[in-house]
Design brief:
Layout lengths: L8 E4 L1 H5 L9 H14 L3 E5 L5 H13 L4 E6 L3 H11 L5 E8 L2 H8 L3 H16 L5 E6 L6 H14 L3 E6 L6 H14 L7 E6 L6 H10 L4 E4 L13 H10 L15 H12 L16 E2 L2 H9 L18 E2 L7 H10 L2 E3 L1 H17 L5 H8 L3 H4 L3 E9 L6 E9 L2 E9 L2 H12 L5 E9 L8 E9 L4 E9 L2 H24 L3 E3 L12
This protein binds 3-methyl-2-oxobutanoic acid and zinc ion.
Length: 529
């Protein structure tokens, strides 16, 4: 591929630089899961690890190399024969193996880290790239700390690597120091001044210490680089690397000014983000671009009104384009009438004008007092019957046998509209047994979408607060139940039943005809946003 093409190679280093984030270590199994997803998503090169670093790293690079079907798999190595040999061994089972070898080129790294003179470094570049080429045709060479490297020397290093047979030249901003204009100038300079530059692909590898990793990577591409090294969720050393989902979506959404393409199936971005967050236990910040949970959520009345009238008023991309489901209208104190009316419709209510005004005022009062206004709160606001509907089935008694001795068994007595019934079920653990008992008492198709336990107070006698969300996929409806009890299993059973009651009440409202609600009180109507 020539660098005149506008296709940008996406080189994902989540499994190497990403895993170098303190605390982000992944097991072999987890790395394989991530690699499989990256491959399916259309990543061109997967840097699977640093094989010489440990036997575990070697094994994971080797296993990723065997697993991956489409992408190239790269193994990182320093500029010495042992590293390169081990990297070559690790990637040899891949159809498209790549060796990625690097050495520092900045004065501060050469003097204090390598303790080498520039001429020695040049010799090492030549020898390492030539040695790597004995094993594979695809050799990437990186100038570590390139952006703090003296420019003439950087040109000599790059020229040496190209002469020795490197096919990709990577220009890392190792310490996240550069700014877009400067980085673009470096790429332009290398392409203009280095003999043989036209034969290789220039690559960016930008760290995010100043929050500029994505901007720098895109500036590099505008200046002629055609590979971006990046990670899912931007994880990586210190402040991380350029986020894959951000660079890819920037080029897609702003293709008018960034006329480049990638091979990425963007509808898989959210899944990839969730998987990497789960296996590394690194939460994704709520307001993270593209994949944060607020990326397509609107709370302010003005924005909600705009989005309801036309999504493009406040959304520059469609949530489904990044696999994020639909935009969310979060109900809170900033929400306005338009969103409130939509929410009521979604919950199956049809309100007369007076009832609507009445409910809206009470919603605003509640939202002022409560941080999160849930669907259940809104139901309680507008529907006098909801308490009875959601109270139809109750837990009367629960006994659970748990421990190491045998199948965990739950014996549950429930009340349905006044009649009692006792059932027994086993499960894979006491919670599973309890939920199975509920399913036996009240057979249903809904799936458990969330089970969350919080300790409300401290200590072993703490009150447990449990949330359960059930989803009826066919009906496209979900409902959440919450309950608190000093016994976690009792709280779990109550929360599950509450969710089931709500789900059924909501289902019959939405499918079996909307509930018409008259004003609950003659509250004074005030006008608001
Ligand atoms: O940041 C960096 O310089 C690196 C190199 C090893 C490519 O990760
Ligand atoms: Zn790096």
């Amino acid at each position: 591929m020539s660098s005149e093409d506008n296709r940008v190679i996406i080189f994902d280093t989540t499994l190497r630089d990403g895993e170098q984030s303190p605390g982000a270590t992944m097991t072999l199994e987890e790395k394989l899961q991530v690699a499989e997803l990256l491959d399916a998503m259309g990543v061109d090169v997967i840097e699977a690890g640093f094989p010489v670093a440990s036997p575990g790293d070697f094994e994971s690079v080797a296993e990723v190399a065997k697993l991956v079907k489409n992408a190239s798999v790269a193994g990182l190595s320093r500029a010495n024969e042992r590293d390169i040999e081990v990297a070559a061994q690790a990637v040899k089972h891949c159809e498209k193996p790549r060796i990625h070898t690097f050495i520092s080129t900045s004065p501060v790294h050469m003097k204090y880290k390598l303790r080498k003179e520039p001429d020695e470094v040049l010799e090492m570049i030549d020898a390492s790239v030539r040695f790597a080429r004995k094993f594979v045709d695809d050799v990437e060479w990186s100038a570590e700390d390139a952006t703090r490297t003296e420019r003439d020397f950087l040109c000599r290093c790059v020229e040496t690597a190209i002469r020795a047979g490197a096919t990709t030249i990577n220009i890392p901003d190792t310490v996240g120091y550069t700014v877009p204009e400067e980085f673009a100038e470096i790429i332009t300079m290398l392409k203009e001044r280095v003999p043989g530059a036209e034969k290789v692909i220039f690559s960016t590898h930008c760290h995010n210490d100043l929050g500029l990793a994505v901007a720098n990577s895109l500036a590099g591409v505008k200046a002629g680089a055609r590979q971006i090294e990046c990670t899912i969720n931007g994880i990586g050393e210190r402040a991380g690397n350029a986020a894959l989902e951000e660079v890819v979506m920037a080029m897609r959404v702003r293709n008018d000014v960034l006329p480049f393409t990638t091979n990425i199936d963007t509808t898989m971005l959210t899944r990839a983000s969730k998987l990497v967050s789960a296996v590394t236990s690194f939460p994704v910040q709520y307001n993270k671009a593209i994949v944060g949970r607020n990326a397509f959520a609107h709370e302010s009345g003005i924005h909600q009104d705009g989005v309801l009238k036309h999504t493009q008023t406040y959304e520059i991309m469609r949530p489904e384009d990044v696999g994020a489901g639909k935009s969310a209208l979060v109900m809170g104190k900033h929400s306005g009438r338009h969103a409130f009316r939509e929410k009521l419709k979604e919950l199956g209510y049809e309100l007369s004008d007076n009832a609507f005004e009445d409910a809206f005022q009470r919603f605003k009062e509640l939202a002022d007092r409560k941080k999160h206004v849930f669907d259940e709160d809104i139901e309680a606001l507008v529907d006098e019957n909801i308490a009875t509907a959601t109270d139809r089935r109750k837990v009367v008694a629960l006994t659970v046998i748990a421990g190491t001795m045998g199948p965990q068994t739950a014996t549950l007595t429930v009340d349905e509209d006044g009649g009692h019934r006792t059932v027994q079920a086993v499960g894979n653990g006491p919670v599973d047994a309890t939920f199975n008992a509920i399913k036996q008492a009240f057979p249903h198709e809904a799936k458990l979408a969330l089970y969350q336990v919080h300790a409300v107070t401290e200590g072993t006698d703490a009150q447990a607060e449990v949330s359960v969300r059930l989803e009826d996929e066919k009906a496209g409806i979900s409902a959440t139940g919450r309950a608190a009890d000093p016994d976690t299993l009792v709280a779990s059973a109550k929360a599950y039943l509450s969710a089931l009651n709500r789900l059924e009440a909501r289902k019959s409202r939405v499918s079996g005809g909307r509930v018409k609600v008259e004003p609950l009180s003659e509250a004074v109507r005030r006008s608001g946003p």
